[in-house]
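re: ur question from yesterday

yeah so i grabbed the chain u mentioned. its 434 aa long if i counted rite. heres the sequnce exactly as i have it in my notes:
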Amino acid sequence: MPFATLRGFRDYPPPDAGARSELRRRMRAAARRAGFAELELPCVESLDLYQTKSGEGISEEIWAFRDKGDRPVALVPESTPSLARLFAERAKSEPLPVKWFTISKIWRYEEPQSGRTREFLQVNFDLLGVPGPEAEAELLATAALCLDEVGAADLYAFRINDRGTAEAIGRLYGARESAPFFRAVDRYRKLSPAAFLEALAAAGVSAGSAGELAELFRSAGDGIPAAGTAAFFGALEGRGLDAGGRAGLDRLRRLFLLLDRAGLSDRVVFDPTVVRGLAYYTSTVFEAYARRGEARALFGGGRYDHLVELYGGPPTPAAGLAIGDQTLELLLREAGRWPEGEPPLESFVVVTEPARIPEAIGIVQALRRAGERADCDLLGRSMSRQFKEAARRRARRALILGLKEYAADAVVERDLTTGTQREIPRPSGPGPRA
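ran it thru and got these structure tokens back, copy pasting raw so excuse formatting
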């Protein structure tokens, strides 16, 4: 009986595995350039770790089971609780601020669809110990650096909001509780105008106020660019926003100023409809979205100032974001910017007869020790087949071993782009490259 991957899981054969590895390499390098230190975490944790943060209902959304010791455990559905647990253990000895990043597999038991699988890779950035918007500015600047490095420059932007402002807008228009109001607002772009008004009514917003609120959101369009935030924030305050809402706007003003200094004003907007995860985030919340097509969300993050305390640590301001590999892959593929995969070879050694394969292996090892990406044929194929293999591997040059008209201690170097060739000394040992 043939076997297949489980639903919601994927294989990544070459060249895709190589392309994904290249993306991780670029993002890891960008993270380190931004001063983030890499962190490794377990792939299995106590189920209680996630229930402490999200409640018992989280068990329905994750891969939870009992281990052989009858302990309730789970495959990691997100990295932040593990990070908070670790920081709580090390808080007394860890100098602040802490800038950590992780690149790890994540598992969630949810319905697979385009851009969403049950197993995926996630790059997390977390910054602990900075109470002001400098943390969010650093996170967004680092995310922008990573996205630009992997080839997504000009394909994305960030929508930003603040919990204090979002809650105050709900109160201003009569919402009885934040949670149902946030659920309605979160679906603003997905519902018809009539259905959105019904959702607001269910959240306690009167018909008249719901119409005014819908008009406010329509006036924001796809988000207020940085240059227009001063006027829009002033208009919001003029509607009678309370102290909590004004404090949120002040945080946003400071954040937009920092993002302008970081050179990101061309890719940030204020969007009052972004309320993702506000039950978890304590003030700022943001998401990256695709500028082309349906402007779909790519990933998100925000400030979570109380999480470390949940795990027994001291009060610690914190903010973070998580970039999933599936939506990033869709973005790059649609734009024709997906990497080619494994890097090309620098040298492919071609032999005139199979008896020379051992010599070819020796040359290949010498080249590798000298720092080159090099390979040779191991199947004793004809020279024409070897050259086809060199072309398939995108080799820069072929080193031809065994042509009788050349010296015994030499090879013929053929440039596989121009076809020109010359005799060069045979590479040997760990010395300099030929």
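noticed a couple things. The chain has 14 helices and 17 strands. also The domain at 347-425 is CATH 3.40.50.800 (Rossmann fold).
anyway ttyl
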